[in-house]
Amino acid sequence: MDSSRTSERPATSFDKPASARSVEPIRARGHRGGIIIMHRSMAHFTLKPMNLASAISLLLFFSAIWLVWLPRTCMLWRQILAVGIRYLPLHANLLLAESHLAPHLTLEIPYLSMAPVPPSSLVWSLTCGVTILLFAATYLFPNRWIPVVYLVRGGLLVQVTALAYFALFPAAFPHSPTSYMEGLSTYGLGLISIVPCLFGLTYHIFDFGLPKKAFLTIVTMAHLTILLPFQILLQGLVLQKTVLFMPILYIVFGMPLDVMAIVAFYAWGMSWPFRRSLKVTN
């Protein structure tokens, strides 16, 4: 009788194989031994009608406001780039790219125009030497800097491919600084334009309250609006020397940098307390 009771008892965690029991606690721990808890965006997410309504309302509101401010933004960029050309050691011309968004809305997007300069043997050799030294320096970083090490090595790998390309095919590079600058201005303006939609799908659906949602959207769009013209000027100062650095500027310090700025603001906003938690603490 005792054996029959034992065979009919419900299965517990102790009935699992020893290997499975040993793996379960490890899966919930970080590399320092701490417990990995569920991210607050997943643990507290409940799509309520009011949050959905606020997300749609903010999307329409900021999209409409941005549509009105687009010509003024282009004018602001034009003035910043003109001042940069005047006072910086930058040999470039200021051009305007027309973009027809609607029958009665035509934008004149400013960008820089400059002559392409292929890398000389001296510039190529110096860049190659600095790249090798930086790659060797990554082995001196402490272990806690491993993420930084891989980021640096990834950027150096892009520069290595550029060095190899200009060493083998120096005259076959198909891109010019002018077309690159035009794309940076145009795509940057487009990236700012989709921020209300991005936050509407990923941030405004959470219960942070309307003021926080509006504030995060305003700060993100304002930051990118100010960042992009200075980003264009800085890259223009580099590209006027040689097009050797165009690949790393495009892949590492171009639009990916602007996207990472949006991700950083989103992470900052997700660190704020939810409105429900504020009510509970009060």
Layout: helices, strands, pairs:
Layout: H1 2-8, H2 18-27, H3 40-43, H4 49-87, E1 93-102, E2 105-113, H5 121-137, H6 146-168, H7 177-193, H8 195-202, H9 210-239, H10 246-251, H11 255-270, H12 275-281
Helix pairs in contact: 4-8, 4-9, 5-6, 7-9, 9-11
Descriptive account of the structure:
The structure is a single chain. The longest helix is centred in the N-terminal third of the chain and has 39 residues, at 49-87. With 282 residues, this protein is mainly α. Residues 1-14 and 278-282 have low confidence and may be disordered. A hairpin with a 2-residue loop joins strand 1 and strand 2. The chain has twelve helices and two strands; from the N terminus they run H-H-H-H-E-E-H-H-H-H-H-H-H-H. The chain has one domain. It has helices spanning 2-8, 18-27, 40-43, 49-87, 121-137, 146-168, 177-193, 195-202, 210-239, 246-251, 255-270, 275-281, and strands spanning 93-102, 105-113. Helices cover 65% and strands 7% of the residues. Helix 4 (49-87) packs parallel to helix 9 (210-239) and helix 9 packs antiparallel against helix 11. It has a two-stranded antiparallel sheet with strand order 1-2.
**How much helicity do the residues have?**
55-70%
How far apart the termini lie comes to 58 Å
- Measured on Cα atoms, how large is the radius of gyration? 26 Å
Largest sheet entry: 2 strands, antiparallel
Shape: flat
Order of helices and strands: HHHHEEHHHHHHHH
- Number of spatially distinct domains: 1
SSE-based structural type: mainly alpha
Tell me the strand order in the biggest sheet. 1-2
Q: Whole-number average pLDDT?
A: 84
Count up the helices. Answer: 12
Low-confidence stretches: 1-14, 278-282
Tell me the number of strands.
2
The percentage of residues in β strands lies in 5-15%
Multimeric status of the protein: single chain
